[in-house]
Amino acid sequence: MAEQITYRRVYEQSSRRDGKRVLVDRIWPRGMRKEDAHLDEWLREVAPSSELRRWYGHDPNRFTEFRRRYLAELRDAGHREAAEHLRDLAAHDKLTLLTATKDVDHSQAAVLAEWLGRKR
Length: 120
Known about the structure:
By secondary structure, this protein is of the alpha/beta class. The chain is built from five helices and four strands, in the order ββαβαααβα. The chain has a four-stranded parallel sheet with strand order 1-4-2-3, with helices on one face. Strand 2, helix 1 (34-37) and strand 3 form a beta-alpha-beta unit. The model has no long low-confidence stretch (mean pLDDT 91).
């Protein structure tokens, strides 16, 4: 159920409606204390590779290509186990994917939410 999968910034106030809260960034959010994040999991292994992240640089003009490359990474062995774990979480509960990125609609969290919605 794609409506069960949402994404937003980790800096926003948590809510009981979030369901499972999973941080999908490779790097811990700047200025955020772990106890303030109210996470169920930090699944950094599902985040884009450092190389892809550096190439993208959160440039919205590169988002289409970033999305294509990131989806290819999710199929690779290095990401597969974490991606499957995320899919299992989404199958059993409402899931909120969290990121520190300011432009969440052009982030890996948005790509993951779409991917999880299709894969069910």
